[in-house]
Model the fold of this input.
Amino acid sequence: MKFTLSWLHEFLDTSLNAQDIAIKLTHLGLEIESVHFMSAGLESFTVAHILSTTPHPNADKLRVCQVQTHHGVRQIVCGAPNARADIKVILADIGDVIPTSGLKIKASKIRDVESNGMLCSARELGIGTDDDGIMELDASLDVGMKAVDALGLNDVLFDVSITPNRGDCLSVLGIARDLAAAGCGTLKALPPLAAIELPQGRAVTLASDVCPHFILYEIDNVVNGTSPAWLRSRLESVGMRSISTLVDITNYFMLAYGRPLHVYDAHKVAGAFSLRSAHRDEPFTGLSGTNYTLPEGLCVIADMHGACAVGGIIGGNASGCSESTTHVLLEAAWFDPIAIAGAGRTLSIDTDARYRFERTVDPSTTEPFARRAAEMIVALCGGSITARTCAGVAPNLARTIAYDPAFMMQRTGMMVDEAQQETILTAIGCTITKEHALWQVSTPSHRPDMEGKEDITEEIARIIGYEHLPCTPLPPARLHVQSPSLTDKARSVMVARGLDEAVHFAFTSEANASLFTDDAASLVRVRNPISSELSVMRPHLFADLLPAVARNHDYGRTNLALGEIGTVFFGCTPADQPLRACGVRTGTTGMHWRDQHSYDAYDAKADLLHLLEGLGLSSAGVMVDTTNIPPYYHPSQAVRLSLGYKITLGFAGALHPATLRAFGLAHPVMGWECWLNHVATSLKPKKYTAFVPCAYQASVRDFAFVMDASVAAGDVRKLIVKANKQFIRDVTIFDVYEGKNVEAGKKSVAFSVTLQAHDRTLTQEDIMTVSNDIITSLHAVGAVLR
Done:
């Protein structure tokens, strides 16, 4: 929104300077984009008088002008078609800089003819859009007069960024109204309108809900010529080109009062007006000459031949005014903001009228500003108002809000007494009815954004100034740190183990899903699948992870570790949709100080054990066996982890080659799965006790036992733990060997046993006793010390 300081003064009686106004507008929430002093760069330009002109001897389109300046007569070569004798013009003297181009004027020769200066157009000075010729000034101006004084450029141009909720400020009147409410001056009252009697004019039918109110004034015997200088100056000062008096008046009312208007040439409109929905693919040519094909449903203003305008957006070329227009129809209407916004997007048309209507125009201004515009047309173009048509009723956008003045303190912390609140609300246009402690606040029609008591407090705080909000420290509060969830813990452990997290859709293909269920008919199917490849809900996370491994292999990434946490689906109830965590490894370990090795079943088992420990389950209580292994695991390279052999916690090991072939994988893949819902029900509240370090040294002894290959190492570990509970503190398996020097069908398993007493240092005899107890206890499974 652009306006000048002098234009603002027409609506607001204020003593504030431009800088103070800019600061206040920003404090009011109307952000200043720029403040431009219009005289900047033009201080040295002066008024000159062309005494005579002669054709240039070497150029047909140039003229040699003898110009009277405040320094005497100068010869200046000019190419403007209107350069002629006895007119006053703007002179850029030697040394001056043209503000729009940065050209510095100097004495020169143009086609071998000396030229000492430049005669300027409005566009070159940056004060207008006209570049058809040099500016022609009033003949009464004195030679040598400052151009800024002659042109009235001792003004300031403001550019304000208006938020979408403040459509009421898209006018000079709206800006002045806000400043007056903030105590920055007094809003000047508009002159009263005298009552007139007019006959009913052209018939108007409202057949669209988009426009509930339509006013039409008919003005006859007008002369549509060039606008007076003051009107052109107002429009050009804010960057709008002057077109003709009729069009300029409508643009003036839009900028000054926020009221979009439109004028039709009455001789080009056939019959009555109808505000209706556009027909499907109805043709329409806008004022710009652009052809449109209108979709069905758009609100158009039509005569008997077709659409004359798209309501609230753009007028039609066929009914537009021209220099020959003598009979005018002046339209003022109110259009629904949502409908206008939708129509504008549909047609991709951005106009100043659309910009205002879609932000809501004050419906109470339709009639009075239509009347004022009609009277201005008569004043500037002659003629007389001959008829008036009013169709529909202006909607009432005012609201009545119940408001307690004490709410101001509750909401903002600002102490504002009731008298000041009442003064501010009255200043912005509200009316107040007091009912004991409660006020009934009626909002003005130009503020549809005020919908509740919070908006009232916002307005009061805005007018007072947000900079006056008290700085109140937050009250001290006890921080309640929420413990991480089970999935968060699982995710952290998986990342710590070097797994990259994968996140897939819960959908998969029926072919992939059937590999992880015994009954394909039990798969949960999607009624409206995105594609055939996403037609069922996954029964296992491997159904997504293994295709991901295959895709990575296709791109040459064979060393891979992926993990995922998600829901699997066995039915449509929550009980049939447990939470699982899964991981896969393929290829070899990364570079390390030790030799690289290919991932094996032990790596998968280690991942699962670390996850269980990270979730709060001690590995000492986890049983490892080879029962009930799912068929998608290798039958002899996978284990089940459980609590007491009853509650399954998960599986780990090598995946079955047949399963891998189904996904196009030729290399071994290790995998594991954790049944998080079983883990959650198995966790017990931790009892934290103080750690008391033992003052006596521990001893570590390693044992290697040869046993049948079918004996589970986990069972052997449990026998060792039970062999001497007094001194044995920890037992870990650190090696499993099958091969040379070990009998076929046998394996060698190495254990590291930590021994320690709480009351003394163990003697050699104590250690030998424990060692013998361990060796003896393993006779039960046929294990022999190697």
Notes: The chain has a mean pLDDT of 92. The CA atoms of residues 472 and 478 lie 18 Å apart. The longest strand covers residues 633-643. The radius of gyration is 44 Å.
